[in-house]
Amino acid sequence: MRFETPADPWAAFTPRPAELWLEVGFGGGEHALAQGAANPGAALIACEVFENGICSLLSRVVPEGGEATAPLPGNLRVWDDDARVLIRALPDGCLDRLFLLFPDPWPKTRHAKRRFVHPAMLPVVARVLKPGAEWRIASDDPTYQAWVHEVLAVTNLFLVSPPATSRPDGWPPTRYEAKALLAGRAPLYWSLRRR
């Protein structure tokens, strides 16, 4: 289930998928698993560096005591390192969809360089997305929302529509979103298209 072929991402899946998707920071894995179940023709590489998140995802697909025999989703692979390392290793134009849902906002100014939505990352991300591919971004943090707006306002790599204020159809919920709504925070949902 671990993804190990970034130079040839399709080699990790049999049969070859119709589409290749990537989720950056899958948290507990609920979104990745829901997308995989709803879209069996798409292969999803789910990235997460935190062991708790990886364990949470695996506990959802492998029943207690079934570690040796439980079938794993054939269209899901896990990358347990920095997603930026993976993206730099992927071939040009290989991704049909990218998800960045409720990332750590890195709220302090000195931490802004760690944000995935960053002027230096936009060309890197654009390189691996096919023309017309979708990049979904969601955040409930006002600092991160303002940052995303600022960064996307000056790019010509993506078609950027105003963010939605409620989760669009086809976006499975996440526990981070549920926490935000329970706390009274207002998420924004961007859907960008690669030019």
3D structure, described in words:
- By secondary structure, this protein is α/β, with parallel strands linked by helices.
- Helices cover 27% and strands 23% of the residues.
- It has a seven-stranded mixed sheet with strand order 3-2-1-4-5-7-6, with helices on both faces.
- Helix 4 (122-128) links the parallel strand 4 (95-101) and strand 5.
- The radius of gyration is 16 Å and the shape is globular.
- The two termini are 32 Å apart.
- The mean pLDDT is 91.
Shape: globular
The overall number of domains is: 1
* Beta-strand segment tally: 7
Low-confidence stretches: none
CATH class: Alpha Beta
Please name the CATH topology.
Answer: Rossmann fold
CATH superfamily: Vaccinia Virus protein VP39
In what order do the strands lie side by side in the largest sheet? 3-2-1-4-5-7-6
* Rg, alpha carbons: 16 Å
Helix count, DSSP H or I runs of 4 or more residues: 6
CATH architecture grouping: 3-Layer(aba) Sandwich
What topology does this entry show?
Layout: E1 19-24, H1 30-38, E2 42-47, H2 51-61, E3 76-79, H3 83-89, E4 95-101, H4 122-128, E5 129-139, H5 142-152, E6 158-160, H6 175-182, E7 188-194
Parallel strand pairs: 1-2, 1-4, 2-3, 4-5
Antiparallel strand pairs: 5-7, 6-7
Give a brief rundown of this model.
The protein has 195 residues and is an alpha/beta fold. It has helices at residues 30-38, 51-61, 83-89, 122-128, 142-152, 175-182; strands spanning 19-24, 42-47, 76-79, 95-101, 129-139, 158-160, 188-194. The chain starts with 18 loop residues before the first strand and ends with a strand.
